[in-house]
Write a structure and sequence with these properties.
By secondary structure, the chain is of the alpha+beta class. The chain is 44% helix and 21% strand. A three-stranded antiparallel sheet has the order 1-2-3.
Length: 172
């Protein structure tokens, strides 16, 4: 544990509270894998800095520790970053729902990944990589055309437009 800074913050009643900002080297479990990372916490001034019960997530960036864990995990294991997923999807001209259909994942799961709320699993990463390889994605869709047409209809998606975006003919 290392003291980084001293800050004050105003609480909801308008009172100023002093905090000590500390850095702690910790092991976080991300997707079931241990990850060493430095986490930052705010501790109310005068409280025991060694008592983890006093640790507060940084009040100016509540998600800071989790965000850095996700970033480090993606770097360490070569996973796509949310920005890369968004860019690849945009290049293909696919909507979120179309992308979720093609990757056989729910729209909410895909949204959570692209908004950095969760780290994708290895299985999801393998599917997401198809977005960065348009020819492989088109081949994947071509192999399962009838299934994608059926599922598109079930989800009220226009299969004709979807196939056109991938430069594929709609199956007969």
């Amino acid at each position: 544990m290392k003291i980084i800074n001293y800050v004050t913050s105003t609480n909801i009643t308008g009172n100023k509270i002093a905090y000590t900002v500390i850095a702690v080297q910790e092991t976080a479990m991300i997707a079931g894998d241990p990850l060493e990372n430095t986490h930052y916490y705010w501790v109310t001034a005068g409280a025991d800095l060694n008592d983890t019960a006093n640790y507060l997530e940084p009040l100016d960036q509540i998600e800071q520790n989790l965000d850095t864990d996700y970033q480090l995990y993606r770097e360490q294991y070569g996973f796509l970053f949310p920005e890369e997923i968004k860019t690849a999807r945009a290049k293909l001209g696919l909507t979120l729902r179309e992308t979720a259909l093609l990757l056989a994942m729910s729209s909410s799961t895909l949204s959570n990944i692209k908004n950095n709320l969760v780290v994708q699993s290895l299985d999801q990463e393998i599917k997401l990589r198809l977005l960065t390889q348009p020819a492989a994605l088109a081949q994947h869709v071509r192999q399962h055309q009838q299934l994608f047409v059926s599922r598109a209809m079930q989800q009220s998606l226009d299969a004709r437009k979807l196939f056109a975006k991938l430069h594929l003919p709609l199956p007969q």
